[in-house]
Hints:
Mean pLDDT: 76
Oligomer: single chain
Distance between the termini: 34 Å
Low-confidence stretches: 1-12, 14-38, 152-157, 161-166
Strand order of the largest sheet: 1-2-3-4-14-13-12-11-10-5-6-7-8-9
Amino acid sequence: MNLPHTRLILCVGLAVIALPGCGGDGVRITQREHTTEEGSPLRAISALNCPDHHGSLTRVETSADGLSCGYSGPRGGRVTLQLLSVPPGQSPEDVLAPFEAEAQTLMPDTPARAAAGNDGAAVSVQSDGENARVRLPGVRIDQGGDRASIEIGGIRIRADAPSEPTDGDVVSVSANEGAAEVRTRGRGGEVRATYILTDDVASDEGWRTVGYEARGPGAGPIIVAIFQSKDGDEDTIADEARELVTLNVGGLP
């Protein structure tokens, strides 16, 4: 059996996330093929392009230097764009770390609710290049290099076939009882990163979805779209933030 292992692993795992056994529809994840446009170099920019309106968002502020702007959305939602340099001696991960920490401060209970004790999570997806691990109710998927094992409802599928080296994205998803924590990191010389916390249970301040989308050349500057929403539809504000990033540096939304 000749299977493209990582793609099979993730497509199977992400497809069954929507099953009723996963505790409702608190998280929705889609998998799509990479395209030539998405793989093309991201643009290096010196100032942000911040339209007056985008989707449900309305621009409410713009810095004089063109390095930041802010948007308001429905029910107090917010999107902030920042254009950041990568200081000497620091990595893009160093630059992005404070934004992940800020999201966790806004929704401090969600990471633990999503993890629910590691293997106890209703949904757990870990992917790093050719290695993947998926845990769902009734589903266990493990892949290492060119070997894959899939167990669904007592049915075991094993695949052993040569696979070419990949420079695939790093994906981490934990979801349980309406709470989810999602991280993605693109590999290669560019910055393509996402962090999302979403929860059916609002934080003390009312937030249900927070996170960021970041893209840019590896040496910078990096555009970061920080989003915060009190709405139960986590897709809308995250998608609109991603589209604003795409408008500035390219790639697919």
